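User: My instructor asked us to take a sequence, write out its structure as tokens, and then describe one feature of it. I'm not sure where to start. Here is the sequence I was given:
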Amino acid sequence: MKKLYFCLLAFLLPLSAAEKIYVSNADTGTVDVVDIAKDTMIERIPVGHSPAGMAATPDQKRIYVADLGSNTVSVIETPENIVSLRITVGNGPRDVAITPDGEYVYVTNSTDSTVSVIKEETSQVVATIVVGTDPMGIAITPNGRWAYVASFFSGSISMIDTEKNVVADTIERERGPDQIAISPYGREVYATNAESNTVDVIDSFTNAVTDSIPVGNAPAGIAISPNNKRMYVANSQGESVNVIDVAKKKAIATIPVGVCPLCVHASPDGLWVYIVNCESETLSVIDTARNAVVATIKVGSGPRGIALIK
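Assistant: Let's start with the prediction itself. The structure tokens for your sequence are:
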């Protein structure tokens, strides 16, 4: 009965929700394509070794996948779901962010402590930027002017000037910054800190840390709703997702998910939140109106990243 209930909910998902979700599987070197309306994985795409973070271009024609174990970025052509090329970047590529105009792709290289900048039109690396030690997550402001990078071991957050491709400022924190999210209006930058079990709130105008929000154990992935009212934080050692009231800067709900949730992504309409659970090998679908998991979809081994295509 429970399985039937989940299937019915998936069937009733509105057309405004993501039609396809791409999930990177680190253990098998693949990316799964999940049809959310059918509540099932429909295709598996071979990529490089240990794929991690991913990002889709604004036109949704391509997905860039950071191949952590291959030192490459795989480029998936979404109409055909094939890898058209692999671009060599730095050592240990971990996460990907794309400028809002789709012209440049930024890749964090965790082993090199650098960020590679790829020109999308030519698929060439045009710049390499030194940042803090062990860069993990990266996010770009809505106007495309700045990229923020969380460096885990150095406990710092680098702000990159995307016009000059240099570090314009460094925000020193304690060891453990993991993932970055930026508000839809670009004013606030949020960074999960896996060692202090908090989310730092940074004013992008001054780069001052204005608040620190307590969350669950070892927070990793983070996403903000399109209306800027809610934030969702995956607690990688807590088997849960915290729902944070952005205005009040505090957690208002805790949602149980799978084991080792890592990446979080909100649908464009804000109705759904998707989480990959690395050790459970599942994708959880949260109904944001009820703050409850309404579907659990089996994916490949060691899922790490998510990209959405409508």
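For the description part of your assignment, you could build on this observation: The domain at 1-44+219-299 is CATH 2.130.10.10 (Methylamine Dehydrogenase; Chain H). Try explaining in your own words what that tells you about the chain.
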